[in-house]
From TrEMBL:
Protein name in UniProt: DHA2 family efflux MFS transporter permease subunit
Gene3D superfamilies in the record: Multidrug resistance protein D
Sorted UniProt keywords: Antibiotic resistance, Cell membrane, Membrane, Transmembrane, Transmembrane helix, Transport
Subcellular location: Cell membrane
Residue intervals of the Major facilitator superfamily (MFS) profile domain: 1-475
Membrane topology, record value: Multi-pass membrane protein
KW Transmembrane helix (keyword) present: yes
Coiled-coil stretches noted in the UniProt entry, renumbered to this chain: none
Pfam families: MFS_1 (PF07690)
InterPro entries (UniProt xref): EmrB-like, MFS, MFS_dom, MFS_trans_sf, Sugar_transporter_CS
Amino acid sequence: MVIAVAQLMVVLDATIVNIALPSAQRALHMSDGNRQWVITAYTLAFGGLLLLGGRIADLAGRKRTFMTGLVGFAAASALGGAAHTSGLLFMARALQGAFAALLAPSALSLLTTTFTVGKERAKAFGIYGAIAGGGAAIGLIAGGLLTEYLDWRWCLYVNVPIALATLLGAGAFLHDDRRRGERPRLDIRGVVLGCGGLVSIVYACSEAEPRGWSDPLVLGLLCGGVALLGVFAWWQGRAPSPLLPLQIVRDRNRGGAFLMMGLAVIAMFGMFLFMTYYLQVILGYSPVKTGLAFLPVTAAIVAGSTQISARLLNRVPPRALMVPGALLAAGGLFLLTFLPVEPAYVSHVLPAELLVGLGLGLIFMPVMATATSGVAPHDAGVTSATVNTAQQVGGSIGTALLNTIATSTSAGYIAAHLKTAAADAAAAGGALTPAVRDTVVKTGVVHGFHVAIGWGAGIMLLAGLAGGLLVTTRPPKQPSPLGDAAPAGAEHTT
């Protein structure tokens, strides 16, 4: 429970501010160009520092790092809630991301080293997978409720009591098995290269939304980030104490799990992004109603992770869950490519949410269990950080890539159809009416959603292919109640 609550706080904080952003912009007089930094400052610090946070957890102790992350996250949240200038809010969000980069890998590595075998491990990862998949939707719900009934500042203040309660639980219940002895040195070159490359790529994706993928700054950041990561990989094979030991990512099953996580999150973030716009802008839902509309996907993720994946992981190979999960999620996304402009929550959105949620529940839990299985305890933190990095970078790429596809498609559709509608109105001896213009614009926006979500469905299928081909591990052998080496006649022992 302690680990799950901490992870929930980290995941939902990436989206809880989204619905509150218009209110914060008005209160702090942010420009349209600068408002994105409320989101970008968090994702840059979080995504860029995860590998460093994971290695610090291995060196300094997972419990100590976990508790430090909680205290820092609470302090940064309080600072952001009390901010009276946009610059102070941006700084607080960056601090939140930095402490989240300590907290998230510590949480997953504590889970990995605490629950090692059998049904308890499957149950623990089922709960953790439900949090990882459903946290984004929970953030939208919480953001809507807090913004509408309290104030946008409570989207940040709410972390303080949660973090303090979790801190008390961590002190009482968590244990760290880190061995006391000589500590390996921190790989400073690896920190600079790896974190620099990740920050560059995440920042490029955030700038790709307003600037476009062909912008020189975006291309320069992407090329620079890839180059830094290439040098990072070269250095990790030669460093005496590497930040990310290459055997972690060279393992076929672990590498396949990392790849599937990144691809699935790219596709998933497209759904959350476009459904938020569809419900609020096209259908006119309030923030609270929009948040509540995401409840079914959260419930489906929880059910898929805890009631299906957790019960079957010890009986079937992980890919027997991952591949059907990807197919279900891709089917749900494909259903959204038929969204009409008219209200269609029950006929289109609800079935799609249930399919996507169930599919993600079948994906996230076995992916995380496979990625962290069989790792040496002294590498558990950095392995957990790599899982989180795949999730974070996938979210950044998915948001930027699919949003670019949607906006460019919508712009082309709207321009062409407005021209046709204006010509038809002129031929009839009249002018283009506001009602016709509004219909064309809404239809064009939804058409852009169709195309982008279609790409998301294709990426989800690619995730399923990656999991099916690369993840070949078998379910663990179930030990007999008396152990594998029970002596003859042991069945008669009391």
